[in-house]
Design brief:
Elements: E1 3-9, E2 12-19, E3 22-26, H1 27-31, H2 40-44, H3 47-60, H4 66-75, H5 85-92, E4 97-100, E5 106-110, H6 111-121, H7 123-159, H8 177-181, H9 187-196, H10 200-206, H11 220-238, H12 243-261, H13 265-270
Helix pairs in contact: 3-4, 6-7, 9-12, 11-12
Length: 271
Amino acid sequence: MAKNKTITVKGTIITIITENNDDFISMTDMLKAKDGDFFISDWLRNRNTVEFLGIWESVYNPDFNYGEFAIIKSQSGLNSYKISVKEWVEKTNAIGLRATAGRYGGTYAHKDIAFEFGMWISAEFKVYLIKEFQRLKEDENDRLKLEWNFQRTLAKVNYHIHTDAIKENLIPKELNKTQISFLYTNEADLLNVALFGITAKQWRDTNPKATGNIRDDATIEQLVVLSNLESINAVLIHQGKTQPERLTQLNVIAITQMKSLLNNKQIKNLK
């Protein structure tokens, strides 16, 4: 599924779609920055443009139709020559340009080609386009680093689950027979009962002024254990365990892991 984001270049908001780790920039949005009435087909009819697109496709597209490309190239630059992006893609099987419909509809170009298109708008626009695009990628990399560091910390925490450090507060209570025999049709509530001892609705009833939900109010230790319980519950479901059986096992696991986590140094450093 495509992921969409935007950058602002010289006051123009430009949409970027990312698919399979490739970034495609909206030429339709970029065109708004060019003075006068121009169309993408005006850029596409230029011989230098066609030559550039042919070279790019030859490098990245093994299915590029060189026969059709040769015909288009021979006609490019003539006053009578005109071709749309849709025609270009259909005739040459190009992958660098695409016309899309829907909410984020318009004409998009691979970032390499979009930068070249930016030069057609103006040299200044191209410089700022590259600058803003690089800033966006740097921000994304910074976020990925933060996520990776957090995941690494959680991995270390899970490694130390087996330790025996115990503190009595926040440790789940052992469920009684009535709680275990009750059917929780919602699997999320099954996990809530195993860890917190109550369902989401029961928590809301006892916390009417709270703005969040039972999990928003959880500690980081509880969230780590909850993540583990979700994975374990999936395994138990595949094993054909009934809800009461799974609830009993999950409650025991929650108690054991919470006891282990509450004295864990890595968790304390996260706070």
